[in-house]
Each structure stands twice: as structure tokens, then as C-alpha cells.
Write the C-alpha cells for this entry.
Amino acid sequence: MKTLTREDLAALARQPANEPADWIRVQLDTGGIAAGADTLYTALEHARLEQHLPFVLQRTGSTGYAFADPVIEVQAAGMPAVHYGHMTPDLAPKLIAEHFGAHRLIDDHIIATRQRGAKIDSPVTHILVRDTGGADANKTEFFQFSFAEELKRRGLGDKVQVVRAFDMGIYDEGAVVQLLPCAVTYTNVLAPDVARIVADSVEGGRVLDDLLWQKPDRQLRIVLRHCGIVDPDSIDDYLRRAGGYQALAKVLGELTPDQVIAEMKVSALRGRGGAGFPAWMKWQLTRAQPADQRYVICNGDEGDPGAFMDRSILESDPHAVLEGMMIAAYAMGASKGYFYIRAEYPRAVERVQRAIDQARELGLLGRDILGSGFDFDAKIRLGAGAFVCGEETALIASIEGKRGSPSPRPPYPSVRGLWGKPTAINNVETLAIVPAILLQGGAWFASHGTETSKGTKVFAVTGKVRNAQLVEVPMGTTLRQIVYEVCGGVLDGKEIKAVQTGGPSGGVIPAPLLDTPVSYETLQQLGSIMGSGGMLVMDKNDSMVEVAKFYLKFCVDESCGKCAPCRIGGYQLLQILDRISRGRGKPEELEIIQRICHAMQRASLCGLGQTAPNPVLSTLRYFGEEYQAFIEGGPSYARKVANAAKQAAEIRAPVAGGTPS
């Protein structure tokens, strides 16, 4: 490959992407592969050869639909692009024959688009149907039959196919119908509505306003803009189809480092690793230090149980993170960078290394990048699975080959970091946002979110939730909207009890407070934190004492042991919680818990010890009656008290366990 120039990138920007008419994209992230996506890819390849069809088979990362893995996206000429979920190798021949041969979709696997239309501007070719009212009286097949019969009666049976959808992205709204390709979506459809939908919308091209679902999609994809679209193993795909390295070219050709930092200041981007420190300020502090060498580090040491935000981004869009790192390095005057990635993420490591090698081969890494005089190169360092190495000073020690344990601050890494040089450490998500900000402008990014928390945030929503997935929403979106509108509510239709945010360092937020807008400040006021983006949903069967005990044990196991408040305090807390959970606790120990927690928060050396008490304090704050019940009557009595408290909370706040309005 030849070395790319700024003129080459400008030419690529002017050229429209040459998209094939027919293609299948298989989402080959770790979750998809664990569900069989690699076997599915092979089956699709064999079926393509056997049926002699010319469609292009592509590899991509994940679009975020973890609940539906393995997921593919299919485009055939004359048909809308659609996602299929829960695909299996056995379905490959049928899918190819139906989709590319007969131009028909297959039942029970379609994931409806969230980009819903408001007008019918082309002939309807497919009707997706699904009853979202509950499994006890599912009428999906009834509506499929009713629409099919009405279409036959009007002579449209051969022109419009009715398909049972797997997921509509709308929940508890009765029968939901989506017309393709316009994506006009109707909710609470009743049997008498079938005839008029066919007559007015399918035949007449008119939208039925009384049925139209007009709520916009809660998600806004900035970080995840390329995930599930580009091939993470191909720099050519990133360059041609995603506008790759255009932000870098703009920065190196048009902006000074100070101007880059100024644009980041306008964006008000705060670090997405958990602390929420302004990115521009960290870059400026690093740049201001006199030094012959500066470093930039991408913190990919994602250790929260159930979290997979950074892993998914690194696996799905590694070049965007690398481009963001290069822009950060230019702004702060760094010439070397490190990706610190968990060794438990082998696919992320492999794809980031390939991205580095490809960029270096094209001259986008190395000396005099794009003829600008800017020199930069990057390497990968593997983390050995120590949760504490997510802390900046422990991470630096690990890269230097030392034991990964925190050091007192100040001096901060921006002043004295890797090998004693000024160092800026940014989270994966933070760096992935940077190219978009430099292309679209800081004001564009700041137009989303709240007054103090700008932009979007990626969350890995797991636990007792119907559709566990990776979501990206504007700051200020409420917890209820994320759980119910985006993820479909609680698993098996049970009542929600609490949501844990921030992983082991966060706190639980009870059901009556789910209408709280998500931001750094609001979560902190509730006794939790944003963290890197883990979000665990719990139902009424979950014991809050056991939840606190689980997270505390994790922190005790992961403590480096360097400072006494964390090492001793965490162990003592765990012993007390263990006694309480066994029904052997004493009332006076609740006071001791409070004292130990506050001592750990004030005196621990790093964020692990300072935040480890959060799950304990928040559960004690909102579910103190459960602790009392364990002390008074043991685990079985505690469950009865917890259920009674839940019922009382519903009486006080009826909206707490319901669906959003």
C-alpha cells in the first residue's frame, strides 16, 4: 500500500461509497461469536456458493442488540435493509432463497428499525406485525392472518408480504404494525383497524394519525455510529464508508493544537470512564507541562461485572478510537500512545493491533503524518485482569512493568505520569467520540444532553431486563425510559425493584426514583455514579443485602491491599454483611457499617476504596428495612418484609413499577 496524503483523503471524501446492491453483514463481536455467528457466517458462505447468488458477505462488529445474537443485516435490491436476530446456520439456505430469490422476509426473526417514518412515500412491500401486549394472549398470528386475508381480498396478496416480527422496539402497546420500506409504525392496532390500514395506508398511501407511533427513538448513536456497519478488520472500509481519518486530516491541515482544545472545550465532553473530568482540561494540563516527551493512553481496562461497552467499541470500530487517540496526541503534543486493554478481550486486542498495523502501513502512524510534521505511534499493553488497574496511577504502574497499585495524587498523571512524563489517560468511549466532534463541531455535540452533562452516553443494560443490550442515549434520558422504552422492561413481566449504575463502585436506585434524568450530578445525588456505563436491572425477588455483599466481595477481592482503609475496612464490612445475610447480625452493626463506609470514602488512596462502600450505603439508604429484617428474622423473614415493603412503595408511588407514559 502507498502512503496516504492529505489529497488522497480529500479525494476519498468527495467520492461516494460504492455500495453493492445485495449484501449480508454478519455481526462478529465476542457476544455474537459466542452465540454462533462465526458458524452462521460459514453457513451463509456455503449457501451463497450453492445457490450461485452474487451478494457480498461482510464482517462487522455489533450494532448492540445483544439480546438477539447472532444478528445479521440483509440488503437485497428493491428491498429495505433489515436486521435478523437469533439466526442459526440451519436457516442460512432458507434466508438466502427467500430474501434474494423471492424477495420475501422470514417470520419470527426480523428486528424492526427504530428509525420510524412519518409518511408513506413509496409502495408498501412488507408489513411487520407483533402483539406486544403480553405472552398470555399473543395475537401476532391472528393479525398476520387478518392482514394476509385483507390483502388477498383487495388483490394485493402477491404484492405485499405480512411477516411476524421478532422485536419491534416498542413494548406493551398492543398490536404493533410497521409498514416497509417507509417504516411508518402503528400501535394499539385492533381487528377493525386491519381493513383501513390496508385501504388507506397500503393502497391509498395515507398515514393514520390516530394509530401512528410518533415518539422518537430514545437512542442517538454518536459513539456507536459505525458499529455494525463497517468491517473492523478493514481500514479501506473505514476510509471509504465511514469517512475515516477525515477528522485527523482536518486537524493536521487546518487547526493548531490550541484550536483543537478550544473545540473540545466548546463540546464540554467529560471523560466517559467514570470520573467525568473535562477532556479538554486534561489535554490542556498535559500540554502545559514542559517536557521532551508526552504520552496518551487509552484505558480499555473494563472490569465491571456485566459491562461490555469498551469491548464492543474496540471490537466494532477500532480505527475510530485510534483516530481519536491521534487527535488527542496532536492537541497535547504527545508522540507516543498506548492502548491498555484487558487480556480477557482477545478479539478487541487482535482488532486494535490490526488497526495499528494498517494505519502504520498507510503512513497514518509514524513520522510526518499526512505531511504535517506530526509524529505519532501507538502500541498495545495487556492488562492481567486486575480491576484496580482501571485507576490511572495503577494503570501507569502496570504499563511500566510494576505491580499495578495506585499512587498518591498529586502529582496527577498530566504532570507526572508514564515514566515520569506528562500523560493523558482517556477512556475508549471518550476517544471514539473525538473524531465526530472535530468533524461536526463542539457546539453540535453540546446541543445534546443536559446543561452540565453534554452529549450521549453508552450503557450496557443487563440483569433482569427483557432485552439486554448496548444502548446510547443523550444525557438526561431517564432510567425508566432506558429500561422500559429502549430495553422492553423487566424480564418475564415482573416488577422492577432497583437499578444499579456504575458497577461495583456505584449504587442502587430504587423504583420510585427511576424518573431521574441520567447525568453525573443526579446520579451522585442519589448515592450512585455514572461509572463507565454498566446498568444492572433488578426485580422484586432480588435481595439488596445480597447485592451489596456481592459487589463488596468483588471490591475486596480486587483491592491491591496497599492502603489500610480499603484493605481492612472492606474486609470488616464484608464480615458484617456476611453475618447479617446469615441472620446472625446485630442492630448496632448498622451503625458500624456507616462508620466504616465513611472512613473508607475519606481515607482510601484511590477510587476503588473510596467508592467500594457505595452499594452498601445506597442499599442501606433505600432498603434499610431489608437489613433490619435479616437481623430480626433471618433470610426467609427478610424476603417477606421486602415484598411487603415493595407493595407499600407501589401504593405510595403507583408509577414506580409501571410502564412509562
User: Anything to note?
Assistant: The chain has a mean pLDDT of 92. The chain is about 40% helix and 15% strand.
